[in-house]
Amino acid sequence: MSPLLTAMSEAARAAGEGLVADSARVRTELVVQNKIGPDFVSQADLRAEATIKAILAEHAPDYAFHGEEGGRVGGEHSDLTWLVDPLDGTTNFLWGAPLFGTCIALARGDEVLAGVINMPVLGELLWAEQGKGAFLNGKPIRVSDKTRIEDAVIAFGIPHAGKPGHDLFREEMGRLSRKATGVRRTGSAAVDLAYVACGRWDAYVERIVAAWDMAAGVGIIIEAGGAATDADGNPLKLHGGSVCAGAPALIAPLTAEMRAAGASLDSERAKA
């Protein structure tokens, strides 16, 4: 493992240890605050992000740091940025479910140079560095080789209360659930993307997703032999807000269905 991935993995593991400790006390001792809309932020998020930031700063003090909780800081003399979600799957965490993780990526613009996802309760650490393959707990991983939606299990990001896009999601799900072998949602983009990288799911699609949620997973999927675009099939922009990632042959048919769903909804609205 390179010094870069060593630092990223150390940061993810340290954050994960704190999250596991906090998870035992979350219902009674942590102060939970409301974010804008129905998302939650807890003191666990803040502690985990501070832990990650401190460790990464020792490795590369000049890089920018863009965390979900603290925003973007530093990087005035570097084009490299850490993209960090200290706790992805916060609602799962607060409700006592084990499907949450820490995401750390190093990016240059929209190019992911390295990514780490730690799912501490599951005991799974994934990492990848550009051109060097992808790994789960030290063993190489590959995305699935599915080529048809009809043979695939597709994971989706589902808009919940307070988020837009419910009508479009219903149209998309109505089209794809009739075709796919199965549809899934764990409640964490980190977990879903990690599962795609391992071949447990065949692809992941979400229309409302932040850069820090997707960057690490996208980097790992690409190094695991996968591909990624936005949800409509355009070149992926990390801050573009949507993603379709998974087995390379599934990207075009999946994004075609997503575009068709949008066109159908627009047609219905025009008639109303």
From TrEMBL:
Keywords: Hydrolase, Magnesium, Metal-binding
InterPro entries: IMPase (IPR033942), Inositol_monophosphatase-like (IPR000760)
Residue positions binding Mg(2+): 68, 85, 87-88, 213
Magnesium is among the record's keywords: yes
Cofactor: Mg(2+)
Pfam name, any one: Inositol_P
A GO molecular function held by the record: inositol monophosphate 1-phosphatase activity
One of the protein's GO biological processes: inositol metabolic process
Catalytic activity: a myo-inositol phosphate + H2O = myo-inositol + phosphate
E.C. numbers: 3.1.3.25
Family indicated by similarity: Belongs to the inositol monophosphatase superfamily.
Protein name: Inositol-1-monophosphatase
Gene name of the encoded protein: suhB_1
